Structure to design on (210 residues):
């Protein structure tokens, strides 16, 4: 009996060790780390393994086109009525995918925005993203990880020195079996609205809104 108990204990330790190793080498945090490494290495193929570019950019376009009033402040040159933005979605989505590829190649949101081809709708998703996470921003860490089955919501916290505050971008991830993949930035629309309020408040010289 004693040997059996020891054997079961050892089996539990081995199983626990395997589970821990598996979780840190295939979990959401690991996948995000690999996506960051891909940007650092300018490896587009590796980046697209851990980030579903089509899904992410499609979601971002939907969120941006729903914020026509915000665009008037953050991107005056590209301001269009909501209906016109809706009609421009296919063009914006195609441009956004090119910008994301350029971002991986250069590691710069500004570079991605500047390289965007001239088009009728002058809205750059990379340029808008840089309003939330600016060149002066730094990554503070993972704010939270909420896993529910094959889906995880991860909060990524960044500093925003321009407004003396922090921003938390929430990414949605899916378990693809042996790795996790980012499929959406869920709150970019809300973050753009927040930045627009901060910009307006700064122009008016008021106190920072909560």
């Amino acid at each position: 009996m004693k040997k059996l108990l020891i054997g079961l204990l050892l089996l539990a330790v081995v199983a626990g060790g395997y589970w821990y190793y598996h979780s840190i080498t295939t979990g959401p945090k690991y996948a995000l780390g690999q996506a960051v490494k891909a940007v650092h290495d300018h490896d587009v193929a590796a980046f697209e393994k851990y980030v579903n570019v089509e899904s992410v950019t499609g979601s971002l376009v939907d969120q941006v086109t729903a914020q026509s009033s915000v665009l008037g402040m953050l991107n005056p040159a590209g301001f269009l009525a909501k209906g016109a933005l809706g009609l421009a979605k296919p063009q914006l989505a195609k441009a956004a995918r090119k910008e994301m590829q350029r971002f991986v190649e250069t590691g710069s949101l500004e570079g991605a925005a500047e390289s965007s081809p001239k088009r009728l709708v002058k809205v750059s998703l990379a340029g808008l993203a840089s309003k939330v996470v600016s060149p002066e921003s730094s990554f503070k860490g993972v704010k939270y990880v909420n896993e529910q089955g094959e889906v995880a919501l991860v909060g990524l916290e960044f500093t925003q020195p321009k407004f003396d505050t922090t921003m938390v971008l929430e990414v949605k991830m899916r378990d693809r079996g042996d790795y996790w993949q980012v499929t959406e930035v869920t709150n970019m629309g809300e973050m753009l609205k927040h930045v627009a309020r901060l910009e307006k408040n700064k122009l008016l010289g008021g106190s920072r809104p909560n």
Remarks:
- Confidence is low (pLDDT under 50) at residues 2-23, 77-81.
- The chain has ten helices and four strands.
